[in-house]
Design brief:
478 residues, mainly beta, 2 domains, 9-stranded parallel sheet, 1 helix, 3% helix
Length: 478
Amino acid sequence: MQGIRSWSGSRVGYFSISNFHVDMAMNGGGGISIGETNNDVRVVNNEIAGMWEDGGGSAAIDGSGQRYRIYGNHIHDNGYSKLYHGIYMDARDTSGPDDIDIGYNHIHHQTGGRGIQIFGDTSALINNVRIHHNVIHHIHLDGIVFHANSGTGLQAYDNVVYHTADPNMRGTSSDPGGSGGCIRFASSSAVASVFNNTFADCAADGDQDSGGIRFDSWSQVTLRNNLVNTTGRYVTTPGSNVTSSNNLWFGAGTAPSFDTTSLNANPVFADEANNDYHLMPTSPAINAGSSAVSSIVMDDFDGNGRPTGSGYDVGAFEFVIACIQGSDCSEPPPCRQAAGATCNSGACVYPALADGVACTDDSNACTNDLCQAGACTHAVVSTCGGDAGSQRDAGRSPDAGTVGGDSGPRVDGGACCTAGDGGPGGGASAAPGSEGNGADAGCGCTTPGAGTTNGSAILAGLALALTASARRRRSASH
């Protein structure tokens, strides 16, 4: 079974895959698969769930080419064996994959496999891969892996990775794999910069080979301004060719000896029990970072400029004073309320809404979204069809449709993302009725079992990274 696939060959490219909900319904295959040698591809603002197979390997999003932009996707509840990952970039493009940007994605509950894996399964090196502003959690093995034939120009910054090597994500695969960590290096060619990440609870399985940062093989790795808060081991088998400074280590004893100007203290998170890794005003991480990262790290996970104080803060979050008193706190995240909010040393603390209250941080109509312990949870609805939606004013082109057009045919209801589909059209504007309504965003249901009507087109492309940025800010509160 295949969700969305582009064919390979002849340097095909210059296309976007955006705003799809791909529910694999516990089947194998791949969610969104970009054919090798497809170049200049954007995969933006999609949701992929339910990919489940114990076979030869795949991923929710996979590809092999040049100039990829993988932004703002929600990838969850996939996997089964160690060979199935959230995002997987390989070297089937034997000319050498290059310039791959993976940012603002939310990847979680990966049963088997890794959150993001770079793995060259040919002799070609994969160069200039940037992994940033992602939140990755509840992963069976590793959160981020630069594996075989990962080459030069590798970067990982402003990521929040927690609860990896999770034994509860093991599943019943015949080949589940074992051990994991928040980030791993397993390529003798890897030259990587790892800056301003927050790594927490990286060795949940307690395995002796699990740890915050796993070193198997590498050429040169530079670690600066990372916050590693984990039990077990901070690093595994560290060796030469690691430059490290201004990192904070807590939870597994004294800091590694190779890290200069290191910190070894409680980072004082806003709400660690609920995975809120923002810094409190008393955190020793504030202003303790190095400015040597400034050419790469210009903002934090939330988009705040760096530095905001006298120096860079350590970890993915800069400390920003949000309030002086409780009345300043008026913008609670989903599943939190402004009533009863308090200001705790410059940070707003919002009380949780009751469990079971509907939440609205996910616009996908094919999930049931309910509050649980102050966080918004999403359960995929297996079918979301029903009465047909209608199509109106379809344009002639998905990007620049002509104004007006004949009323299109009705589309039968059925499985999720068929009810209420528009026609082939769409306009150059996201506003309904201005330059044609169409299929690009006309998918889904207003409620389970009822079709939607007249979904309006939304332009795919870089502008959707703004939506992705808003999504990942919300994700940080979960």
